[in-house]
């Protein structure tokens, strides 16, 4: 790829523009080098120069700065091949790290990822937040966070926290339907205080779970990810970017109506998807006490009922958003093909667009919302080194 | 505004870059001058220079080219004031014009707008397309188009056509739920042939109706416009741009489910919004034969039922898209405050986000989808003169 076909390339030409413009170009090019190295295959300084169109001298100066800043390491030259040996560059796995925290309805989690997005320490624990004041849940999450930070032994530069509710543009958890006591809680600020001032960015759990599918599950650029749990939430990805709507709170699929006269919902509405296909509704319908038993042998009637309710809500979402792919995550992924088939049948009957919507379960091992919360920190750092 | 604060300004500096770059800059600056003149208040060459940061010489040369191309006219100087009189520039109302065509379920329309977007000729006529082959409907629309083109007497450079169904990325009408015979119809091509080769761009009626609200109704940048008719469709505007979803077919609110076991719908589904709150359902519920009688005295029960069904579907859309404003158009606008109140009450009960959704009727006199289809042509021409 040459420089003429790279719209994102800003050639570095000292002497033109002021000092501010020079710094801007430098920052841009630092990020460009990081992107090339983060891209996957090993690449040397010469390789980066060839791919970006920057001169070798410029690349070397940028690489030195990135090595000094802890972003890159340079390995010994690989053997074999012809010509001068090239030392492959890679992201410094001891460099700036990201902390992910999750506060769910009945659990907490924390993990640390390194610059490459790999999980270096992770812990989860049950923690019942429906009956506790928010401060207790935040304190429990902070304890777990301190443990994974100590275990990973990396310089954590920021944190993301996944929350089961509506996060406002100011980062405040406005409302979590399944946690009635959590109203207008500045979770980010409270967590930052308990973690010695690390900047903390709150996000919606379902949005982050969708990003995990995108970043670590190899999803294409357009899909809706719906995650089943005590709450039911969706994250929407369009054009490879999270779609958050006009006010940043898009994707509340759990509160789309599937039965107008159905049971009252924690959100104040009636007949929402969550009441028909949330974890507690499915356990009740199956007559079993916990998720493990449900997943071990889900009754056909329960799969059919959940598939129908999910299909109705998803048909509306597909008709409105025109997404080609639906990914079933969380509990829904564990219910497997029986649920996929029931959802597919309902969508076939109710969706206007063609070709038919592709329904599949989420990729195992992505690390979900918790890892995505941590990875968002390092991805941002790589974009703005 | 000076040039430093104009990120869109590309200074014209002959001698740098090649001829291709020079032409690119020239085209960019022609569009920039047009945008300043189209902005509203009268502005002279000197005013354009002051606002854009281009030199007076450059602006004069650009203005001469735009006058020669039929885009601009220069009026006589206004009297009064001090200093040299300034001749105000305006868009040439005899310049390139846009044709709008609408093929509805039971009507056709055509209009011509001038460069300023003002309607210069418009005609609509009943035309029943449910029973006719598509070619007959296209022929009727082309007749009407020829009439308005003759009446306006302007050079029509392109056309837009508003269609009541799903338009694919290739411009083909894939499916129109209320016109079962219109499947995979290349309406644009057929219309272009009948209009002597004018380029024709098909679009969804609801998307164009939303753009009419945005361009001519003074709406803010984020809203969902739902238009009631034989079909029920929505156009979504986010950040001042139409939101079309991953496949370009977003906004099919009419086929969002409001009653899972409700009546079968023309789309193949069941209990869609259109079956509960489409024009025919409302006429049936009110026991009147036509829209005029319905609008003259809408029964309270009909308003309540329509408001409830619309509210259920819109609550889902707001929960998914997080739009702050809902605009009721078409038949819904004519049903007035009774319907607004019923929809508002349903949304209050069912929407998760805050502050409450603002529900209002569409602005009268925007010209709707028909005018927007025509205006899209001249807006594009002004952006790329």
Task: Write the topology of this structure.
The structure is a homodimer.
Chain A: H1 19-38, H2 45-52, H3 56-68, E1 72-74, E2 89-91, E3 97-103, E4 107-113, E5 119-126, H4 134-152, E6 156-163, E7 166-167, E8 173-175, E9 183-185, H5 187-194, E10 200-204, H6 205-216, E11 223-228, E12 232-238, E13 241-243, H7 273-277, H8 279-286, H9 291-296, H10 300-321, E14 325-330, H11 331-350, E15 358-361, H12 368-383
Parallel strand pairs in A: 3-6, 6-10, 11-14, 14-15
Antiparallel strand pairs in A: 1-2, 3-4, 4-5, 7-8, 8-9, 11-12, 12-13
Account of the 3D structure:
The structure is a homodimer of 385-residue chains. Chain A has 385 residues and is α/β, with parallel strands linked by helices. Helix content of chain A is 41%, strand content 19%. Chain A contains 12 helices and 15 strands. Chain A has a 5-stranded mixed beta sheet with strand order 5-4-3-6-10. In chain A, strands 13-12-11-14-15 form a 5-stranded mixed beta sheet, sandwiched between helices. Chain A has a 3-stranded antiparallel beta sheet with strand order 7-8-9, with no helix packed on it. In chain A, helix 1 packs across helix 3. The longest helix of chain A is centred in the last third of the chain and has 22 residues, at 300-321. Chain A is globular. The interface between A and B is large, with 49 and 49 residues.
């Amino acid at each position: 790829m040459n420089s003429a076909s790279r719209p994102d390339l800003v050639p570095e030409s000292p002497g033109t523009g002021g000092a501010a413009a020079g710094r801007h170009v430098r920052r841009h090019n630092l990020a460009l080098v990081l992107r090339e190295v983060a891209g996957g295959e090993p690449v040397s300084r010469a390789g980066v120069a060839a791919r970006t169109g920057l001169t070798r001298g410029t690349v070397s100066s940028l690489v030195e700065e990135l090595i000094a800043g802890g972003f890159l390491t340079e390995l010994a030259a690989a053997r074999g091949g012809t010509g001068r040996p090239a030392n492959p560059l890679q992201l410094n796995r001891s460099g700036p790290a990201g902390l992910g925290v999750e506060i769910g309805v009945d659990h907490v989690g924390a993990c640390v990822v390194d610059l490459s997005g790999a999980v270096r320490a992770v812990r989860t624990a049950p923690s019942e937040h429906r009956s506790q004041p928010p401060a207790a849940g935040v304190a429990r999450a902070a304890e777990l966070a301190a443990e994974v930070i100590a275990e990973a032994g990396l310089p954590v530069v920021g944190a993301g926290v996944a929350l089961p509710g509506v996060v406002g543009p100011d980062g405040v958890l406005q409302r979590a339907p399944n946690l009635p006591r959590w109203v207008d809680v500045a979770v980010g600020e409270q967590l930052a205080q308990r973690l010695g001032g690390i900047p903390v960015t709150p996000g919606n759990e379902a949005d982050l779970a969708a990003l995990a599918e995108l970043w670590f599950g190899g999803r294409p650029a357009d899909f809706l990810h719906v995650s089943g749990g005590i709450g039911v939430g969706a994250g929407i990805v369009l054009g490879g970017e999270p779609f958050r709507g006009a006010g940043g709170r898009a994707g509340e699929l759990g509160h789309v109506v599937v039965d107008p006269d159905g049971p009252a919902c924690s959100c104040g509405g009636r007949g929402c998807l969550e009441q028909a296909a949330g974890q507690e509704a499915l356990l009740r319908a199956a007559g079993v006490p916990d998720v493990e038993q449900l997943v071990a042998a889900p009754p056909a009637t329960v799969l059919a009922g959940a598939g129908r309710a999910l299909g109705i809500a998803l048909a509306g979402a597909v008709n409105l958003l025109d997404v080609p792919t639906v990914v079933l995550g969380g509990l829904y992924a564990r219910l497997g093909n029986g649920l996929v088939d029931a959802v597919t049948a309902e969508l076939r009957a109710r969706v206007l667009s063609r070709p038919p919507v592709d329904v599949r379960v989420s990729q195992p091992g992505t690390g979900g919302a918790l890892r995505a919360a941590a990875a968002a920190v390092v991805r941002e750092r790589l974009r703005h080194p």
